[in-house]
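Intended use. Records like the one below are meant for learning the mapping from a protein sequence to its folded structure. Do not use them to infer anything beyond what is encoded.
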Amino acid sequence: MSEKIEQILNGLNQKACLKQRVYKNSLSVFERFKQCADNIVHQLAPEVLSKSPSVEISENSFGDFEFHLMFSGDTIVFLLHTNVFSFPPKHAVNKSSYVQGNPHNAYFSMIQVYNFLSDSIKYNRLGDEGYLLARIFVNHENAFYVEGKRQLGFLYKDLGKQFLEDKEIHNIIEQCMLYCLDFDLFVPPTDALSQITVQQKNYFNNPTGIATGKRLGFDVINKIRNGS
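Structure written out for the chain above:
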């Protein structure tokens, strides 16, 4: 057996197997996120519906890699990436004593969390934009690191001293929900709607035709005017 074949085998036995452990752990972690989201729904729904019966709140799963937490006009989409990642060499994660003490700790699964308007999902408005709320990175030991909005931008940076338990998962989801509730849909500028064509009017009659986002407004009208 050549030296290069031995190196390849060594790489497969170590790095590839490690990445498989990280990936398999990510499926379990993602399932816990689903369960925690469902628990939050069951906790909130009776209180919300008793005061506002028309308000919708639910958790819906779309296979192993996606689920939605919908509450009124907002939907939070959780996406589990199927690949395993490491950070660039100069990143703070790689400078931590936790990673430097064991390079195997430097490989992470990634959960991405986006905020969409609920109508964007309901009407399948393919041009609508979602906004990134957080990225959650989890390794084979359930050590985790979070990049995100507001508190999520600094709460979970102490890698190796915090491990992902249900309490942390609940807090991450709740922080995302709070951010969505404060992140409002802006009315489009008056000038953008001062004149419309029959074609543009037809867009308003078709809920799938108006691209909308919380900071997008009815930008599709400008795109039509510009020929894009």
